[in-house]
Amino acid sequence: MEVTRTNFKECLSHVYSAIDEADFLAIDGEFSGISDGPSVSALTNGLDTPEERYVKLKKPYNNVVSLPHTEARRLNLF
């Protein structure tokens, strides 16, 4: 389904239903500044817990802006 600015209101109930029925939701966001950050290996090590790894990787990107008008627009519901 192609959801655009012009048909957004008409599609919204279908999107809500799909989200309610989904077992998994993935959103592909395009963000500014991601490639400018430090490498994963520079921030983490093999002994980090998943929580520690998440905190370390999230910190440099707290001020990154989501770019709403990009080529890749994805919402995958499974």
From TrEMBL:
GO molecular function: nucleic acid binding
InterPro entries: CAF1_poly(A)_ribonucleases (IPR051181), RNase_CAF1 (IPR006941), RNaseH-like_sf (IPR012337), RNaseH_sf (IPR036397)
Pfam families given in the database record: CAF1
Similarity comment: Belongs to the CAF1 family.
PANTHER family cross-referenced by the UniProt entry: POLY A -SPECIFIC RIBONUCLEASE/TARGET OF EGR1, MEMBER 1, POLY(A)-SPECIFIC RIBONUCLEASE PARN
Full protein name: Uncharacterized protein
Organism: Oryzias latipes (Japanese rice fish)
